[in-house]
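User: Here's a chain of 129 residues. Predict its fold as tokens.
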Amino acid sequence: MLSGTDILHVPCKGAAQAMIRAGEIKALAVAGDRRLDMFPDVPITREQGMKGHDVNIWFGISAPAGTPRPLILRIARDLHAAVASTDVKERFARLGLEPQVGTPEAFDRIIREDIERWSKVVKAAKLAP
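Assistant: Prediction complete.
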């Protein structure tokens, strides 16, 4: 939508990472804000001249509104410790995931920015429920 390019998504059978490594498909760019450790030679979209195409996939943990701040901070601290463990790092790496952790405030900012960004895409594409 941002570039005006008409693209057809063609799902592939199998894991894309394995197909890239085997030379069955070619990765043209990473739609994130930095190159992937598993494919350091694949440029990010910004390096290809496509500004605004950085899309980071994220997973997070949320708590209900009104959750006491000390509990939020404890969950965040425990999550940081879990993600820093060798076992979790290795499991994520096998899935092609590169975990990053931050503060509850940073995660809130990511959610708000994504809502703003993707709301514009939904409107431009005239999508409706």
